[in-house]
Amino acid sequence: MINPRWIRYARSLRRFWATSLEAELEYQLNLVVELLAVLGNLAGSLFVLSLLAGPSRQLGGWTWNSALVVVGMYTLLDGFTSAVLQPNLSRIVNHVQNGTLDFVLLKPIDSQFWLSTRSFSPWGLPGIAAGLVLIGWAVSQSDHLIKPEDMILASSLMLAAALILYSLWFLLAGLSIWFVKVWNATEVLRYTLVAGRYPISAYPPALRLVFTFLLPVAFLTTVPAKAVLGQGSWPWAFGSLIAATVSLIGTRLFWKLALRHYTSASS
User: Fold this and answer.
1) Which terminus of the chain is more exposed, N or C, with fewer CB under 10 A?
2) What is the pLDDT of residues 194-248, one digit of tens each?
3) Do 157 and 224 touch, CB atoms closer than 8 A?
4) How many CB atoms lie within 10 A of CB 241?
5) Which pLDDT tens digit goes with each residue over 75-119?
6) pTM confidence score
7) How would you classify residue 57: left for phi > 0, otherwise alpha for psi between -120 and 50, otherwise beta?
8) Bridge partners of 62?
9) Is the separation of the CB atoms in 68 and 144 below 8 Å?
């Protein structure tokens, strides 16, 4: 039997996103602008990839079509960031600065859930669609035949990548409880994660360590891409799922700690 608390949260999420869609769709021209922006970014990524791959069409041991799967994975996550993460988590800083976080804490709903899901931007959907199309096209051009176990593993690792990305954003945004000017840090994070646009093996050994153990860029794009291509290894997959679980638990503990140090605007 489903816990009534989860049903209530599911209904709240549906209402949150329905009201966000009604508000955003008043500016339908944004869809055209966002579509052009996604196509422009994708064209830029493919152009840089072609320069890095050179005549051999190989990059860090990845074939051209395999590297396209990594680009598609990055485009998919970038769309997820635009649709869910940025509209919600970027507002935590404003809530702290303007004192409106007090009103959030008084609501009869978990504050982390409210801050993480209150808004939804449909303008991230073109990026998600472009990423899925590019992944599907690149896989169809490769010699690999996708098996059901590959799809299950790849879906699990893509979910893990989304949770890791969410955790990084939430941790930085939550630092606004102590440091007001952290918005630049979230922008730096977004531009740093651009490194995940290409296979992690294409970078020098020192950067591979940074992008694996310090900033888990490898778990965001390269590891799920390997699973899609049927090259996933269980140690890397296990590491990715562990990283996602630890990150999610870490954000929960971090938010509870942050609220204990939060000084109400009315106090």
Assistant:
1) N
2) 888 888 888 888 888 888 877 888 888 888 898 888 887 777 788 888 888 999 9
3) yes
4) 16
5) 999 899 989 998 898 888 888 888 888 888 888 899 999 999 999
6) 0.87
7) left
8) 59
9) no
Q: Side-chain half-sphere of 37: how many Cα atoms within 13 Å?
A: 15
Burial class of residue 146 in the structure, from the number of CB atoms within 10 Å of its CB (0-12 exposed, 13-18 middle, 19+ buried): middle
Largest CA distance in the chain: 65
Please give the Cα distance from 3 to 13 (Å, whole number): 16
Directed axis angle between helix 183-192 and helix 86-98, to 10°?
160
Question: How big, in percent rounded to 5, are the helix, strand and coil portions of the chain?
Answer: 80, 0, 20
3-class state of residue 263 by DSSP: coil
Please identify which residue in the block is written with the tokens 């021209």: 29
Residue 46 amino acid letter: L
Say how far apart CA 90 and CA 116 lie, in whole Å: 10
